[in-house]
């Protein structure tokens, strides 16, 4: 991961890092073989920097952590899900533009 502000969420730490977070969390479900996931990665880094302290940003590798994507019905990647207070607020699927991610974040701020 390019930015130190982008967390690596796993099946093991998801509850503590995402569901129990006191700020909204953006979770990018991705895989190393996914070209659109690679295309959106710099945007995820930018969002993490611009919203540092307001929103936690992280990624779940779906190949290494199959339980979380299954629990949240992730069928295509990249899928980006916004969590607030331990609940799903909204989600988008695909390599979306920055404006769409910012609109997603505004729902939680």
TrEMBL record:
InterPro entries reported in the protein's UniProt record: Thioredoxin (IPR005746), Thioredoxin-like_sf (IPR036249), Thioredoxin_CS (IPR017937), Thioredoxin_domain (IPR013766)
UniProt GO molecular function: protein-disulfide reductase activity
Q: What is the protein name stated in its UniProt record?
A: Thioredoxin
Keyword flag Transport? yes
Question: Could you tell me which cysteines form disulfide bridges?
Answer: 34-37
What the entry lists under PANTHER family is as follows: GEO12009P1
Q: Where is this site: Contributes to redox potential value?
A: 35-36
Tell me, which GO biological process terms does this entry list? cell redox homeostasis
In this protein, which residues make up the domain named Thioredoxin? 1-109
Per the UniProt record, the site (Deprotonates C-terminal active site Cys) maps to 28
Q: Does the keyword Transport apply?
A: yes
**Which residues are annotated as active site?**
34 (nucleophile), 37 (nucleophile)
For this UniProt record, the keywords arranged alphabetically read as follows:
Disulfide bond, Electron transport, Redox-active center, Transport
Q: Where are the transmembrane segments?
A: none
């Amino acid at each position: 991961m390019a930015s130190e502000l982008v967390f690596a969420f796993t099946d093991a730490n998801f509850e503590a890092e995402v569901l129990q977070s006191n700020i909204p969390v953006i979770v990018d479900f991705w895989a190393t073989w996914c070209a659109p996931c690679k295309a959106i990665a710099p945007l995820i880094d930018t969002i993490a920097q611009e919203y540092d302290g307001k929103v936690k940003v992280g990624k779940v590798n779906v190949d290494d952590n199959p339980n979380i994507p299954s629990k949240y019905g992730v069928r295509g990647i990249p899928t980006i899900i916004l969590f607030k207070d331990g609940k799903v607020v909204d989600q988008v699927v695909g390599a979306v533009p920055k404006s769409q991610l910012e609109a997603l974040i505004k729902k939680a701020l």
